[in-house]
Design goal:
The protein is built from six helices and two strands; from the N terminus they run ααββαααα. It is mostly helical. The protein folds into two domains: 55 residues, Multidrug-efflux Transporter Regulator, Chain: A, Domain 2 (Orthogonal Bundle); 50 residues. The protein has a two-stranded antiparallel sheet with strand order 1-2. A hairpin with a 5-residue loop joins strand 1 and strand 2. The longest helix is centred in the C-terminal third of the chain and has 34 residues. The termini are far apart.
């Protein structure tokens, strides 16, 4: 009995990854080149399906494509110690924590700006005036 094969459309539907993205992942080597049917359609395996789910989950956690390439390479080394994977996850966790800190600072500043509003017309808008002031936000996370 032969292994189930997926067309790019079937794979897209079952993984939630667009066909164009699947072809892109194949082009950049995150996914092995697919076999072709007699009529030229790409045919993917259950292993390709699993690999795409791995990529999708990794992207959802904010890993870059380069990080995912490294994680996939590590995943292919079944007997290697997982210290490198742990390090990669810890690095990503630190980046997420830094972004959260930046987002909290942005939230605080936006709340402060919102508190400046006294209603009225744009000509007298304290928010526009504050945003126009060059010293406001100096050193903020968006600079």
């Amino acid at each position: 009995m032969s292994e189930k094969k997926y067309t790019v459309g079937q794979l897209a539907k079952s993984t939630g990854i667009k066909s164009v993205t699947i072809r892109y992942y194949e082009k950049i080597g995150l996914l092995p080149k697919a076999a072709r049917s007699e009529s030229g359609y790409r045919l993917y395996t259950a292993q390709d399906h699993s690999r795409l789910r791995f990529i999708r989950r990794s992207r959802g956690l904010g890993f870059s494509l380069d990080d995912i390439r490294e994680l996939l390479s590590l995943a292919d080394q079944q007997q290697a110690p997982c210290a490198s994977v742990d390090a990669k996850v810890n690095q990503q966790l630190e980046q997420v924590r830094a972004r959260l800190k930046d987002l909290q600072a942005m939230e605080h500043e936006l709340k402060r700006l919102n508190g400046c509003c006294e209603g009225g017309v744009i000509f007298n808008c304290r928010i526009i005036e504050t945003l126009s002031n060059e010293t406001v936000g100096a050193g903020s996370p968006t600079d």
